[in-house]
Design brief:
With about 500 residues, the chain is an alpha+beta fold. The protein is about 55% helix and about 15% strand. It has a five-stranded antiparallel β-sheet with strand order 3-4-6-7-8. A three-stranded antiparallel β-sheet has the order 1-2-5, with helices on one face. A two-stranded antiparallel sheet has the order 9-10. A hairpin with a 5-residue loop joins strand 9 and strand 10. It is globular, with a radius of gyration of 29 Å. About 30% of the residues are buried.
Length: about 500
């Protein structure tokens, strides 16, 4: 079952997307530690708790350092910029390189999972594409420019559920949900929508809808699921996000020149992994890892690799040709009539010319918007790529693991013994009540870390309980970082 459970409910021209809570804890670690320590009554316990938090972080960081070092060493061989030079220096065979790149992907996917990134499924992408936001062009990938062996080989040896159809060419990881709002006049978009509605009305009145196909989009669409029983529940759910789009607004010449606000849910973080196709002359070994932020769901195409330049779609050309043919036939028929009605001929010609002009100018406007979005994705929305992305992921894993352990220990310290289910519920309630945030707390991973640290145990009936704060600090012991800080302070005071 995908993490993003999309239920689009259409009622009163509203599109609502219902989203499952993410596992990521959206609270800065310093804020979390300070706030929890302030909830502790005795000052001596607060000091012990702050010491424990530092020792937990130092220990977890040490656990991951060797794995992260292996990851970075492997990536240095597949860095698209300098990787080929290092591979040549190693004098490795092709089979040996294949093994190394599969090891790199295995480490990378493990880090992604630990950092609560999920592979975007076909269902999630279909629902994301079921609406339009700022990008109104059909964007496709030039698959001939992408390698199809690397990821296919990896997934054959490491099966994953609900893989998208394009998983042999590139993988889109996503994490976190947000909201993007844009306020503007949207003059051309309003005119386009009004012309489209007028055209639909004319087609209905003239019965030409049987000849011309309905206005459509080449992107895959998912029909909204109407569920009246869940609508009231969804409106009260804090993880329900409404899509506010021009298509569902009341437009008129009165509000043509007024500003409006449209809204779309976003993926807070997206990471795309792919390799370019090899040429006849040179085998491509570089692996691209690109990191984006705040990408509107309906505009996910801007993160796709090796995009084709947009152009008029085959459907647009069909509309052109059919419109021209229907117009000529209708005009010729009117001329052959004994009493040709000039007004009818004028109406038909105006409708056909107006519709063709609409297609052309809409395309030009969408092209300008597309170029702006691509530029924005490069400068504003792209966080990093390659080594920078991997370093960010490594630190992110540590931060998430530390926060999970601290929250779980705090609950057991304050509430006493608890079953796994009760601990999970109490951790989520703490995050919601004290910080106003929601998340699907990963209690299994947190308890596993606590047991590995040796500061949480289970009783005879399976309930978890923690040792005292002072004892917990003794069990973990003095860390290397603490010794270094003491030595540094000693040398500074000497």
């Amino acid at each position: 079952m995908p993490t993003v459970e999309e239920k689009m409910m259409s009622t009163r021209n509203k599109d609502v997307i219902r989203l499952e809570p993410e596992s990521v804890i959206p609270i800065l670690k310093p804020k979390l530690i300070v706030h929890l320590s302030n909830l502790i009554e005795h000052s001596s316990d607060r000091a012990e708790f702050l010491k424990l938090c530092k020792r937990v972080e130092y220990t977890i960081r040490a656990w991951y350092m060797l794995q992260f070092e292996d990851l970075m060493q492997l990536y240095s061989l597949f860095d698209p910029v300098h990787g080929n030079q290092k591979l040549e220096q190693q004098n490795l065979s092709s089979d040996e390189i294949d093994v190394l790149e599969q090891n790199f992907l295995r480490y990378l996917f493990q880090i992604m999972e630990k950092s609560n990134f999920k592979i975007a499924t076909d269902e999630e992408i279909d629902v994301a594409h079921s609406g339009q936001y700022l990008l109104n062009l059909p964007i496709t990938v030039d698959e001939s420019k992408l390698d199809k062996k690397l990821l296919k080989s990896f997934f054959e040896s490491h099966p994953y559920e609900n893989l998208p159809d394009f998983a042999d060419k590139y993988v889109i990881f996503r994490r976190g949900i947000g909201i993007d709002k844009t306020t503007d006049y949207f003059f051309m978009e309003k005119v386009d929508a009004m012309i489209g509605r007028l055209w639909a009305w004319i087609l209905t009145k003239t019965r030409l809808e049987k000849v011309l196909s309905r206005r459509s989009n080449s992107r895959p669409k998912k029909d909204p699921k109407k569920d009246d029983e869940n609508i009231s529940e969804a409106e009260d759910d804090e993880l329900c996000v409404e899509r506010i789009r021009l298509e569902n607004m009341e437009l008129s010449f009165r509000n043509l020149l007024s500003k409006i606000t449209i809204q779309e849910p976003t993926f807070d973080r997206i990471i795309v992994v792919y390799r370019r196709a090899s040429s006849r002359i040179k085998a491509e070994r570089g692996i691209y890892v690109k990191h984006f932020k705040n990408i509107p769901m309906a505009d996910m195409e801007i993160v796709l690799p090796e995009k084709k330049n947009p152009s008029l779609t085959p459907m647009d050309w069909v509309k052109f040709l059919i419109s021209a043919a229907v117009g000529l036939v209708a005009v010729a028929g009117s001329v052959e009539m004994p009493k040709a009605d000039l007004w009818v001929m004028f109406a038909i010609l105006s409708t056909v010319i107006g519709y063709c002009a609409k297609i052309y100018f809409t395309f030009q406007q969408n092209m300008a918007t597309y170029q702006n979005l691509i530029t924005q994705s490069m400068y504003d929305k792209q966080l990093d790529s390659g080594r920078g992305t991997l370093l960010h992921l490594c630190d992110d894993v540590i931060q998430q693991e530390v926060k999970e352990v601290i929250i779980s220990f705090f609950i057991l310290m304050e509430q006493g013994k608890a079953t796994l289910e009760d601990l999970d519920q109490q951790c989520e309630e703490l995050i919601r009540d004290e910080f106003g945030e929601s998340c699907n707390f990963d209690v299994d991973d947190a308890v596993h870390k606590l047991e590995k640290l040796g500061i949480v145990c289970r009783d005879t009936i399976g309930r978890y309980y923690c040792v005292g704060l002072k004892r917990a600090n003794e069990i973990i012991g003095t860390t290397t970082e603490e010794l270094v800080l003491k030595a540094k302070q000693g040398s500074g005071s000497a």
